[in-house]
Amino acid sequence: MSLYEDLQDSGTIEDGIVIEGGKIGKMWEIRESMINSHSRFGNTLTFDISIPIAYMEDAIVTMRKKFDEIGINSCKKYSANKNENHLRYVTGFGHLGDGNLHLNVVVDKYNAETTALFEEHIFEYAKSHNGSISAEHGLGSIKPGFLKYSKSKEMISIMKRIKDKFDPNGILNPYKVIPTEI
To answer: In whole angstroms, how far apart are CA 141 and each of 18, 129, 135, 164?
Structure first.
């Protein structure tokens, strides 16, 4: 019996894909094409979060409901075309086995106001499920201000002190990872 069958029989997993015969390249092609397929419907905002595996599907479903509750789904105010909804889809994929979810929000056109709402709700969800606002792609120069969703003020302060110790002149990755204000 294979490992896959053992895990399925034990109830550890419900479903999965077994790739045989050198077809791994095709699987990666399908995975990589997801973002490109989103672009047919609008602009894609991708949120790289890390949450416990048990909450992967719930994150997508909860965000769809949350965005509907706050009126982004049906609100024409944010739409580039007033006859269409601003929010098109909320989807997810990633390295689900290690808790890394690429949560994708497809909108008709980028809008700073709704992006701020998406960030707030998605990062709050990650925080409330003991997750992180950044998984594999790191914080970079875009997310330092959101680090508060994943780390306490004390932890951010310790991170800053460590960085200052190793980089007293602030020349290594300036303005990245550590927020300028704690």
So the answer is: 38, 24, 15, 17
Amino acid 91: pLDDT = 92
Select from 47, 48, 43 the least CA-distant residue to 110: 43
State pTM to two decimals: 0.77
Parse the chain into domains and list their residue ranges: 41-140, 151-181
Q: How many residues does the chain have?
A: 182
Cα separation, 120 vs 165, whole angstroms: 32
Within 10 angstroms of residue 133's Cβ, the number of other Cβ atoms is: 23
Q: What's the CA gap between 32 and 180, in Å, rounded?
A: 34
> What would the pLDDT profile of 78-99 be if each residue is shown by its tens digit?
677 776 778 888 999 877 678 8
- On whether the CB atoms of residues 49 and 122 are closer than 8 A, the answer is yes
As a whole number of angstroms, the distance between CA 86 and CA 43 comes to 10
Locate the DSSP E strands across 6-130. Answer: 43-50, 87-95, 100-107
- Is the predicted pLDDT of residue 124 greater than 70, yes or no? yes
The residue with tokens 């982004």 is: 72
Q: Which CATH class is domain 41-140?
A: alpha beta
